Amino acid sequence: MRLALLLILATLAGVVTVLGFAPYRIYWIMPLSLAILANTLSRGGKHAFWLGYAWGLSSYLCNFNWIFISLHDVAGMPAWLAVPLTVLLPAYLALYPGLAAWMTIRIGDKCGAGAAERWLLLFPAAWTLMEWLRGWMLSGFPWGQVGYSQITESPLAGYAPVGGILLVTLLVALSAGGLQLAVSSGKWRRACLAAGLIALWGGGLALKPIAWTTPVGKPITVALAQGNVPQSLKWNPISFESTLRLYGQQIAETRADLMILPETALPALLSELPPNYIQILQSLANHNGMAVAAGVPRRSDSNPNGYLNSVVALTTPGMPYYAKNHLVPFGEFVPLPILTGWLYQWMNMPLSGFSRGGDQQAPLALAGQQIAFNVCYEDSFGEELIGPAAHSTMLANVSNLAWFGKSTAASQHLQLAQARALETGRFMLRSTNTGMTAIIRPDGAVDAIAAPFTRQVLLGFAEGRTGLTPFMRYGNLPVLLAGVLMLFAPLIRLRRRAPSERPRYRDHL
């Protein structure tokens, strides 16, 4: 009965995390949720893995329920198959909080760690290292890391340019560990913990106003197209011509220095568009004195049979392009086709075999700016954007979120983009098919945003930036090293103790 109650408590703590992320953004929910999980671990350490797993499964099911919409409502997969596949990703991801909980208790018991070591060293370190690992394993899925819940309203967001979202994640877990430690501490220790938390969160607040990069050049006017083409019509031959007319009309009616069209806005391979269509778009853009980049799939230069999810600079001589490199498993390439290829007979998913664009791609020169593009969920990977951002003055993301209907996915994706702007100290321009099309400032604040599920062109201003934030200089390495040191500090202390003073692990099972 006691275990059942603890599992229920851990599950409920996971459920409420949905309120920590966009669109709700109640940032204090996340450290409180992790503190509740830590409390269940202190009461049921023998079952640490399952308590952490229950937290992760409920959290990821609630936050990623839009997977069902993508598979069933949009791709047309039958419910009997879509439901288990929807559960599969959260069931896998939940292994990581389960392992973090298990490491916290196992290492703590093995070295006889005190409460302070367990909750201020082991718990935040194990949690952070596991969050990093799930963002890397099997091509990675960092969406939903607890640090994103702090962007941009929380004081802890001030640490993002210093150590990236992984540092913010570490500090959220550290705050949760401090709250758990305070529950079982006396007045003096509680006062010290309160002072430490105030200093930690106050430090983030003090960092927020710092501008880590400097303006370069003149501000430009930008126009971000939002076509609002339903996924059911996007690749339908019946609506093909109307889609092309839509974007042609938006270009003709727009006056700006730079205009960006969303991911696969032009729903055909570049070489298979109607004759002279690109020339018509170029003529319209040149008449308005406007540089235009558009999401359009194209053939690979190195592989005639391959095709790329690309952004093409239509108005630049030679039409240079950026091609998506970090592809989505199942959505853009088929992992282990012998084992998983049969799934596609149940889904309407055109162009599911993209090729990678390559790691070393130069920014696109547009409207006097060097713009580093990324496509769809590539902006989930902060460290991968460091190189492109260092050689650019702006970032831009093109996405097609029609795959996820009217779910929270678009709002969550906007929060990821805000984190990237913060980490790099650069404007992030987002052009999406259905929302959230937005202009994001270098401090992560949304400067302008288009109403979702509307057809419009968002107009605003953006300014080039130069310079490197601390995160761009060092990446995740300092946080990972700190996590490893925190994790092994109690073990190092144990080795220095006399053998007679060392705890026997079996005494703590």
TrEMBL record:
GO BP annotation list: lipoprotein biosynthetic process
InterPro entries registered for this protein in UniProt: Apolipo_AcylTrfase (IPR004563), C-N_Hydrolase (IPR003010), C-N_Hydrolase_sf (IPR036526), LNT_N (IPR045378)
Cellular component GO terms held in the UniProt record: plasma membrane
EC assignment: 2.3.1.269
Keyword list, A-Z: Acyltransferase, Cell membrane, Lipoprotein, Membrane, Transferase, Transmembrane, Transmembrane helix
Gene Ontology MF terms in the entry: N-acyltransferase activity
Transmembrane segments: 48-69, 81-107, 119-137, 157-179, 191-212, 474-494
Localization in the cell: Cell membrane
Domain CN hydrolase per the UniProt entry, residue ranges: 225-466
Keyword Transcription regulation belongs to the record: no
Pathway where it operates: Protein modification; lipoprotein biosynthesis (N-acyl transfer)
UniProt similarity note: Belongs to the CN hydrolase family. Apolipoprotein N-acyltransferase subfamily.
UniProt membrane topology term: Multi-pass membrane protein
Function: Catalyzes the phospholipid dependent N-acylation of the N-terminal cysteine of apolipoprotein, the last step in lipoprotein maturation.
Protein's name according to its UniProt entry: Apolipoprotein N-acyltransferase
Enzyme superclass (EC): transferase
Keyword Transferase: yes
Organism name: Paludibacterium purpuratum
Coiled coil: none
